Q: What sequence folds into this?
C-alpha cells in the first residue's frame, strides 16, 4: 500500500507519519516475516510437523534439525512454522469475532445514545468484570476444549473492550459539524454511520485491533498451554511451550523458540499499535 | 471516604446480580442436554437423572437461578459433581495460595513499576529514561508464562537458587513460602509493572513541569519531598486507573501460573474442574474471581477520592 493509492490527504499524512517511526516500521517487517514464514510453512518446513523420528528424540541443533527435536523426535523448526499458522490465525479469528460483535454495537451506542447506549454500556461493564482468561475458561468448560471454542470465547471476552473504544470515538465524531450537516439534509442514519462516522473512527479502531491481536495471541497461547485451546497433535506456539516445559531440564530450546516467537509477534503488534496511534492526527487522538 | 466506599458498594450490587446470573447461565452453553454431557462417559439413565436432579434441571430456569442464588448468598455454592466436598470448601481451601500469589505479584508490580517510572519520569530524555521505556515495552509484550519458564531455567535448574515448583503455606514456613512464590510472582508482575512504570513515567514527567511543583522547588523543599508530597500524589490518578485494569489481568494470569508451578490455588481448581466437567466448581471459581475483580475496582474508585478531593464531593 503506497501513499499514492490512498485517497484523502489525512490518510496520506498518516502513512507518512507512521513511516517516520523507525521502531514501528521494524516491527512491521518482523511481523511480515513471521506471517510469511508461517503462511509458507508447507513449502519452507524441512519436515512434516507430525513426522516422528524415534531415534532423534530431544536432539540438539544439527544439520538435519536446525532447532533440534522434541520428545517424540519431531523437528522443532517445522513445528514452529506450522504452529505460527495456527496461532496467528487463531488470534486473527478471535479479534474478528470481537470486531463483528463490538464495532456495530459501539457505533450504535455512540451514535444514538440514550437507553440503547446505557443498556449496552452496562452489558459491557458486566462482561468486563470477569478476568478475560477465566471467562474464556468458563466458556470452554461449557463448550469443550478446542481451537474454535477457544476463539469464540476470546472473541466474546474482547468484544466489550472494542465496543468501548468504538463508542467513545463515535461520540467524539458525532459532535462534529459535518455529521450535523449530513443529518440536517436528511441523510438516513445508517448512511451517516457507515459513510461519515465509520471512516473517521478507523484510526483508533486500527490501533485497538493491533493491540488486541497481541493480547489475543497471548491468551490463545495461554489456553493452548493449558490444553484448552489447540489440541495436539496440531502444533501451536502455546501448546509447544506447554509440552516443551516438561522437557526444560534436558532441552531448554523447546521452551526458547516458541516463547521467542510469541514474544516477537506480540511485541510487533504492540509497537505497530503504538506507531499507528502516534501517526494519528491530534484531533483523532483526542477522540480515543 | 466512607460515604464514597458505601456508595460504590451499593452500585456494585445490581452489577453483581447480573454477573451471578451470567455465571449461572454458563450451563446453557453446554451443547445438548447438560445433564447427559456432565454425567461422564457412557452414563446410564439413572446417572443422568441423578445429575439432572442434583443440578435442579427439572425446575423452571428462573427458579433454578433463584435456588442457586439464595444458596450463594448464604455462602453455599453447591456441591462438586465428583468429589464429596462442597464448592465453597474446595475454594476456601485454595484461596490462600491464590491470594499469596496475586498479592505478592501486585505488590511487586506496584513497587517495581512506581520506582522505575518515577526514576525515568524525573529525568525525561536521558539514557536512564530510554532504557526504562524500552524495557517497559518489552515487559508488556513478553508472555508472562514464558518469563516464568525462563526464570525457572536460570534460577532453579542452571543454578539451584530457588525451588522450581510447589507451594508451602505462609503459616508453616514464611521463608520457604516466599522462596516458592518469588519466581511465579515475578513472572506475573512483569507486565503490570511495565504498564504501571509507563503510566508513572508519563504522569511524573507532566506533573514535574507544573507550576505548583516549581513553586515547591522554589520554596526550597528537598527534592524527595517535592517528588513524594507533590509530584507522586498528583501523578497517582492515572496510575491507579491502570492498576485496576492490570489487577483484573493478573487474576486471570494466576490460572496459568498456578498450573505451571503446581500451586494449589483456585486457578488450578478451575483447571481441574474444566477437564472433569465439574460445572458447579467452575461456576464457583468464576463467581469468586469476578467478586475479587469487583472488590479491587471498588478500592480503586475509593482511592481516587483519596488522591483527588474533588471526586469525594461529587
A:
Amino acid at each position: 500500500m503506497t501513499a499514492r493509492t490512498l485517497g484523502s490527504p489525512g490518510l496520506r499524512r498518516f502513512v507518512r507519519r507512521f513511516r517516520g517511526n523507525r521502531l514501528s516500521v521494524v516491527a512491521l517487517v518482523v511481523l511480515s516475516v513471521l506471517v510469511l514464514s508461517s503462511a509458507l510453512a508447507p513449502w519452507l518446513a524441512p519436515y512434516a510437523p507430525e513426522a516422528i523420528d524415534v531415534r532423534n528424540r530431544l536432539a540438539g541443533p544439527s544439520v538435519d534439525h536446525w532447532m533440534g527435536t522434541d520428545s517424540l523426535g519431531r523437528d522443532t523448526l517445522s513445528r514452529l512454522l506450522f504452529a505460527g499458522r495456527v496461532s496467528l490465525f487463531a488470534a486473527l479469528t478471535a479479534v474478528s469475532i470481537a470486531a463483528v460483535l463490538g464495532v456495530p454495537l459501539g457505533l450504535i451506542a455512540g451514535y444514538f445514545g440514550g437507553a440503547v447506549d446505557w443498556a449496552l454500556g452496562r452489558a459491557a461493564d458486566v462482561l468486563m468484570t470477569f478476568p478475560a482468561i477465566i471467562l474464556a475458561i468458563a466458556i470452554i468448560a461449557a463448550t469443550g476444549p478446542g481451537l474454535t471454542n477457544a476463539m469464540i470465547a476470546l472473541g466474546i471476552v474482547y468484544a466489550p473492550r472494542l465496543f468501548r473504544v468504538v463508542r467513545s470515538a463515535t461520540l467524539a465524531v458525532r459532535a462534529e459539524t459535518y455529521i450535523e450537516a449530513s443529518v440536517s439534509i436528511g441523510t438516513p442514519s445508517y448512511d451517516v454511520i457507515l459513510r461519515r462516522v465509520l471512516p473517521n473512527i478507523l484510526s483508533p479502531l486500527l490501533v485497538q485491533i493491533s493491540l488486541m491481536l497481541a493480547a489475543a495471541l497471548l491468551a490463545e497461547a495461554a489456553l493452548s498451554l493449558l490444553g484448552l485451546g489447540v489440541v495436539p497433535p496440531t502444533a501451536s506456539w502455546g501448546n509447544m511451550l506447554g509440552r516443551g516445559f516438561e522437557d526444560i531440564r534436558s532441552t531448554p530450546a523447546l521452551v526458547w523458540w516458541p516463547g521467542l516467537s510469541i514474544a516477537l509477534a506480540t511485541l510487533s503488534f504492540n509497537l505497530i499499535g503504538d506507531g499507528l496511534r502516534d501517526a494519528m492526527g491530534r484531533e483523532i487522538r483526542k477522540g480515543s | 471516604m466512607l460515604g464514597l466506599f458505601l456508595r460504590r458498594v451499593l452500585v456494585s450490587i445490581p452489577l453483581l446480580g447480573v454477573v451471578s446470573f451470567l455465571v449461572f447461565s454458563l450451563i446453557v452453553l453446554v451443547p445438548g442436554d447438560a445433564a447427559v454431557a456432565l454425567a461422564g462417559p457412557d452414563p446410564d439413565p439413572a446417572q443422568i437423572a441423578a445429575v439432572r436432579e442434583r443440578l435442579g434441571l427439572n425446575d423452571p430456569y428462573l427458579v433454578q437461578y433463584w435456588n442457586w442464588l439464595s444458596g450463594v448468598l448464604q455462602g453455599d455454592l453447591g456441591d462438586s459433581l465428583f468429589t464429596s466436598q462442597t464448592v465453597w470448601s474446595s475454594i476456601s481451601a485454595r484461596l490462600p495460595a491464590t491470594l499469596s500469589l496475586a498479592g505478592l505479584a501486585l505488590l511487586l508490580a506496584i513497587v517495581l513499576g512506581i520506582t522505575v517510572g518515577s526514576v525515568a519520569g524525573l529525568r525525561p530524555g536521558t539514557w536512564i529514561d530510554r532504557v526504562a521505556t524500552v524495557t517497559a515495552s518489552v515487559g508488556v509484550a513478553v508472555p508472562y508464562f514464558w518469563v516464568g519458564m525462563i526464570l525457572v531455567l536460570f534460577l532453579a535448574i542452571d543454578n539451584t537458587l530457588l525451588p522450581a515448583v510447589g507451594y508451602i503455606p505462609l503459616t508453616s514456613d514464611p521463608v520457604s513460602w516466599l522462596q516458592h512464590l518469588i519466581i511465579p510472582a515475578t513472572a506475573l508482575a512483569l507486565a503490570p509493572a511495565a504498564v504501571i512504570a509507563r503510566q508513572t513515567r508519563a504522569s511524573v514527567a507532566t506533573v514535574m513541569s507544573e507550576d505548583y511543583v516549581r513553586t515547591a522547588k522554589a520554596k526550597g523543599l528537598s527534592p524527595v519531598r517535592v517528588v513524594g508530597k507533590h509530584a507522586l500524589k498528583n501523578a497517582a490518578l492515572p496510575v491507579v486507573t491502570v492498576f485496576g485494569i492490570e489487577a483484573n489481568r493478573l487474576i486471570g494470569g494466576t490460572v496459568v501460573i498456578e498450573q505451571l508451578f503446581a500451586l494449589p490455588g483456585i486457578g488450578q481448581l478451575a483447571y481441574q474442574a474444566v477437564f472433569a466437567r465439574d460445572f458447579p466448581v467452575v461456576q464457583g471459581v468464576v463467581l469468586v474471581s469476578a467478586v475479587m475483580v469487583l472488590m479491587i475496582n471498588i478500592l480503586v474508585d475509593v482511592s481516587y477520592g483519596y488522591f483527588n478531593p474533588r471526586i469525594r464531593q461529587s
